[in-house]
Every structure is written in structure tokens, then in C-alpha cells.
Amino acid sequence: MTLPVRPLGTSRMRISTVGLGAWAIGGGGWAYGWGPQDDAASLATMRRAIELGINWIDTAAIYGLGHSEEVVGRFLRELPPGERPLVFTKCGLAWDGQERTAEPRRTLEPASIRAECEASLRRLGVERIDLYQFHWPDETGTAVEDSWAEMLRLVAEGKVRAAGVSNFDLGLLGRCEALQHVDSLQPGFSMIRRNVGAREIPWCARHETGVICYSPMQSGLLTEGFGAKRIAALAPDDWRRRSPDFRPPALERNLALRDALRPIALRYDTTVAAVAVAWTLAWPGVSGAIVGARAPEQIDGWLRAASLDLTVGDLDEIAAAISASGAGSGPVRP
């Protein structure tokens, strides 16, 4: 199956407009886990994604404290090299091996970046990471220029193909760009979490920096099956139990927005999830959306987003629904 592709900035990589997110594949038992996850189901999900034309997987060292990368590595070894998807991963969150549920430490110290890269290469079983990203801004006092210089050395050494950042604001983006071009930004972006649509995404469009947005369905809120009962049934260690978006009063506003998307989904004979993801892809400068799945059938629920072109009228209707619901913050339309 062939899906539409877009360039990832100036990196020379062309990525399907939706990619598979491997956050939940990391499983439970850590600070931001999604509860228990079966590795066999994860492998089946990745197989289904590639069969359907998705050509990239986004993971991170922190997901499951290395476990997500290990499972992705197992999947890669199933495939001939020429059939493997692009693999994107991230560094910069250090965990305590003795206390798995402790909050990770945000560090972009050069020595840590290099050590994390080597560990990710081993877990993934690859010689080069297609896109390596700083996961969050540093909190240790390390200058971002020193961090970015280390990232650029990894590129020069052939360990990394393209270099990007995640959750960076305009100031940090500009400081990195002054040294050498930033290939991509990975921001949280959805109909509920819209703030980067005002500044960071337009900046990326002007600077030819690719954008791959995460949580376009707001971690499940913008899907048909989510509600109070589903939240009550979440695993005890599912991080969403602690999220304000999943609690009153934000929860009611978020679900009201979700319900307002149903008529649009019906018109296109698709799902609310697909409409939610397609909305993020309608923004100029967005290269692709990272969409999570824990079972193969979940992919079928949102894959239509890859080729769903929302009209001006659709975007107006969604903007009105966002305003009426009071959900989230940020600009309401591209």
C-alpha cells in the first residue's frame, strides 16, 4: 500500500504523512508508561504499519527505559535491510535504574548524549540512526550550543543521519540553527494542544525545518471510544491518570470537542481519530504526524488521515467547535 509522503525538511528523507509512535510499546512500570503491553502485539502492530505503507517509526530511549527501542530492534531484524522503515529516536532523559518510576532527569550534557546514542544504536541493532532528537530542553545548566555541537559530531561520524529536537521553543531553535541547520522539530500538537501553531510551526516552515507532531489525538481523547468509563479502566500505572487533560473540568471540554467532530467524520465515512490527525497535517510546515498504536487494528482506525484533505469549510467548522468547547489553547485553525 502506498501512502502520501512529504519531505522532512532538507534532510532528503521523504516520510509518509503518518508515522508509528512507539511510546506505549515501551510498556508499563516507569514514570510515563501506559500500563502493561504485550511485545507480540507490538511486533504485530509494527508489521501492520509497514504493510499499510507507513515508512517510519518514532521511539525514544526513555520509553520503557530502553524497552521500546529493544522491541523496535527485534522488529528490524525480521526484515531485509532494504525493507526496513526509517527509525527516529531521542536522547536527553536519564533514568534511575534503581527506581524505575522516578521522574527522569533532563540532561543534554555532551558526554550523556554520546553515551545515549551508543546505547540506542545497540538496542536498535543499527549502525546509524535516521533521525536523532533531543527529547526535552536541558535542566543541568549545559549550554544548548555545546549540546548541539555534540549532536553535529555524531552526524559527522556517521552515527546519525539527521539531527532534530523535540519540545524546543523559538529561542532554543534559533540558537541551534545559528550553529547548523535543525533538520526537524517534534512538538506536541493537536486540536487541544495548539500553542506551537502560533510560533514554532511557522518558524519551521520559514527555515525549512521539518515538523513531526506527537500526540495528534491527544493520547486518545480525540477518539470515539474514550470517555469516563475508559479512563476509570486505565491501568494503575498509566500516566494519563495524572494528566489534567483527563480530569474535570478539562475532560468535559475535550470530550465536547471530540463529539463535535463526529459529523465531519461521518461525511468522510471515517473516524474522529482520522479527522483529528488530518487537522494537524493541514497546517503548513507539518511534515508528518506520529500516531501511537498498541494493536494492529488500531492503525486501521486512523490511517485514513494520511490522505484526508480537509476543506476550508471543514477547517472553519472545526475552528468553531474548538471555540465553542473551550478546549485547550492556541490558534484554532491553520
How do the strands and helices of this protein lay out in sequence?
Elements: E1 5-7, E2 14-16, E3 18-21, H1 39-51, E4 56-58, H2 67-78, E5 86-91, E6 93-94, E7 105-106, H3 110-124, E8 129-134, H4 144-156, E9 160-166, H5 170-179, E10 184-186, H6 200-207, E11 210-214, H7 228-232, H8 250-260, H9 262-267, H10 272-281, E12 288-292, H11 296-302, H12 312-325
Parallel strand pairs: 3-4, 3-12, 4-5, 5-8, 8-9, 9-10, 10-11, 11-12
Antiparallel strand pairs: 1-2, 6-7
Helix pairs in contact: 1-2, 1-11, 3-4, 4-5, 8-12
What top-tier CATH class fits best? Alpha Beta
Question: Mean of residue pLDDT?
Answer: 97
Query: Under CATH, the topology is which?
Result: TIM Barrel
- The helix tally amounts to 12
Number of domains: 1
Using the alpha-carbon principal axes, give the shape.
globular
In the CATH hierarchy, what is the superfamily? NADP-dependent oxidoreductase domain
Query: Whole-Å distance between the termini?
Result: 29 Å
Summing up helix and strand content along with how strands pair, one would put the structural category as: alpha/beta
CA gyration radius, whole angstroms = 19 Å
DSSP helix fraction: 25-40%
